[in-house]
């Protein structure tokens, strides 16, 4: 009897393994291989060995592979027969982001991964739900009053917090700051003010811990881990058992959600007592426009915090490091800044074309979000001939596209803002944008980033405010490493010394 039970148990263990073994082989027969550059793959485990071997540099590894591929597309075989298509082909990017937009939603898997934090927010939903939120959000983002509010929030944070902290550091002459951390705190204060009308005061001389910021960071880190895992069953089991990282995620999301709901209820109560709210943050705008469902509003606002939390700070961190490495570019930017008023108005900021080009060039080499993905809603054939099976995920590799010789020429590795510029007949620089599907740093097509203009406004105001007064000098011997969670970071941060500018 014992032997019978053991045999039955082994049978039940072997059945799923056998299923996945044959599923893996069958999947490899169904999907077309684009070329010899695909990493070696085995039945059942796929390319697990090379994936693990390169786990510390997954972005760079996949970038090398996709740029070596003749079609700029390759298939990454993951354990248990799962396949992900990775592309740096602009024609494919246009196909999935615009031409066949309806065939490439975010997909169920991505939605499940982010649902705990993002719920039904605009970045975590498809179809009619996404369309409705996009229309509501697009209307709010296109108002002059929001732009004025963003300018005010950025200027207050810049002049009352960031610049005084840098001035204090410069006065000592020896203080080393983690500039990445400083910029993350700056961006977090900004986006919370813009989204909720709430100031977490995260950028202060004491560099305080903020419960909301810490919880948000914990939640994003764990959800990113979900997206990267080779065996999703593990995190799902941990969630079921409420242990480990999933237990920490539940606690962190609880803090974020409790805060979001608290602020939403307070704003609604204020609205009941007045005919309209005096504040012009995004939460107030959504409530004023008649969208009063707590969860709906909280989901949207949390999504915008996620989008604005680390993207601008990541871009600025690499920007300041590149300027130190390329003093010629820094001099050009300083010349442009000094031709503007000390507190440039919106139109002056728009005219900072060399600074704008330098930021674009920095994000080409070090994009804030290195990869983004969709999922095929039906069988399809991509423009490069790759067959997409229904349910197959596809990732467009933004980091790799910025390093493509075909797109940027033989000097692609150089930091050269002039590639974004041309001169008019009077000798003035004119910004020359690139095709959005060759440079999808802000996505493209129907889901193009609503906050693009807001991001450039913030980054150019910070660049002007800091560079006019200070030199940001990375500590000698530092060679930053590009790593990615939800957004790109420098491994270990960017230690710098701040010097007063005397010229």
Automatic annotation (TrEMBL):
This is Cytochrome P450. InterPro entries: Cyt_P450 (IPR001128), Cyt_P450_E_grp-I (IPR002401), Cyt_P450_sf (IPR036396). Its cofactor is heme. Keywords: Heme, Iron, Metal-binding, Oxidoreductase. Belongs to the cytochrome P450 family. Heme binds at residue 449. One of its GO terms (molecular function) is oxidoreductase activity, acting on paired donors, with incorporation or reduction of molecular oxygen. SUPFAM superfamilies: Cytochrome P450.
């Amino acid at each position: 009897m014992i032997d019978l039970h053991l045999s039955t148990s082994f049978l039940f263990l072997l059945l799923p393994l056998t299923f996945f073994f044959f599923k893996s082989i069958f999947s490899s027969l169904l999907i077309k291989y684009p070329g010899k550059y695909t990493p070696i793959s085995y039945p059942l485990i796929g390319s697990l060995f090379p994936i693990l071997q390169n786990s510390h540099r997954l972005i760079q590894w996949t970038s090398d592979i996709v740029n070596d591929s003749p079609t700029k597309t390759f298939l990454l075989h993951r354990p248990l027969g799962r396949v992900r298509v990775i592309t740096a082909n602009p024609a494919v990017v246009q196909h999935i982001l615009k031409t066949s937009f309806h065939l490439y939603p975010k997909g169920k898997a991505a939605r499940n991964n982010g649902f705990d934090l993002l719920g039904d927010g605009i970045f975590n939903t498809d179809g009619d739900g996404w369309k409705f939120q996009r229309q509501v959000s697009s209307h709010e983002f296109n108002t002059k009053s929001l732009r004025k509010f963003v300018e005010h929030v950025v200027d207050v944070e810049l002049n009352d917090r960031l610049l005084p902290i840098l001035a204090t550091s410069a006065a000592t002459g020896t203080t080393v700051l983690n500039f990445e951390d400083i910029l993350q705190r700056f961006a977090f204060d900004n986006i919370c003010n813009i989204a909720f009308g709430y100031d977490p005061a995260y950028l202060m001389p004491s560099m305080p811990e903020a419960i909301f910021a810490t919880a948000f960071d914990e939640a994003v880190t764990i959800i990113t881990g979900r997206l990267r895992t080779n065996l999703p069953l593990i995190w799902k089991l941990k969630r079921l058992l409420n242990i480990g990282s999933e237990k920490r995620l539940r606690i962190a999301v609880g803090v974020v959600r409790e805060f979001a709901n608290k602020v939403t209820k307070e704003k609604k109560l204020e609205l009941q007592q007045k005919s309209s709210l005096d504040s012009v943050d995004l939460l107030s705008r959504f409530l004023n426009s008649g969208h009063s469902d707590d969860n709906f509003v909280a989901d949207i606002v949390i999504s915008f915090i996620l989008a604005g939390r680390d993207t601008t700070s990541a871009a600025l961190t690499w920007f300041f490091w590149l300027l130190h490495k390329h003093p010629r570019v820094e001099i050009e930017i300083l010349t442009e800044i000094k031709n503007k008023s000390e507190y440039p108005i919106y139109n002056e900021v728009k005219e900072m074309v060399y600074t704008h080009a330098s930021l674009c060039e920095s994000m080409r080499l070090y994009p804030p979000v290195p990869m983004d993905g969709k999922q095929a809603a039906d069988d399809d054939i991509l423009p490069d001939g790759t067959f997409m099976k229904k349910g197959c995920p596809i990732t467009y590799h933004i980091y790799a596209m910025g390093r493509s010789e075909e797109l940027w020429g033989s000097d692609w590795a150089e930091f050269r803002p002039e590639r974004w510029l041309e001169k008019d007949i009077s000798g003035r620089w004119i910004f020359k944008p690139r095709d959005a599907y060759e440079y999808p740093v802000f996505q493209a097509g129907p889901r193009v980033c609503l906050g693009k203009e807001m991001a450039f406004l913030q980054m150019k105001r910070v660049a002007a405010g800091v560079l006019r007064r200070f030199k940001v000098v990375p500590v000698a011997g530092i060679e930053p490493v590009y790593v990615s969670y939800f957004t790109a970071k420098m491994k270990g941060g960017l230690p710098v010394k701040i010097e007063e500018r005397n010229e």
